[in-house]
Amino acid sequence: MRTTIRPVRDEQGITTAEYAVGTAAGAGPAGLLYKMLTGGFGDKLLKLLYDHVLGLLGIG
Length: 60
What we know:
By secondary structure, this protein is mostly helical. It is built from two helices and no strands. Helix 1 crosses helix 2.
């Protein structure tokens, strides 16, 4: 009688489809954040934060 030994599949890591979903899920918010920070909103937000930090330090 002959027995066939099958290799055990290692299911660690992620598959190509999961890479695609993860990349798409990360690219959407990253693109939105980039558009927000490079537009007028980003300029105002950074100026507000900068002025606030200077005020906390007693410089501004």
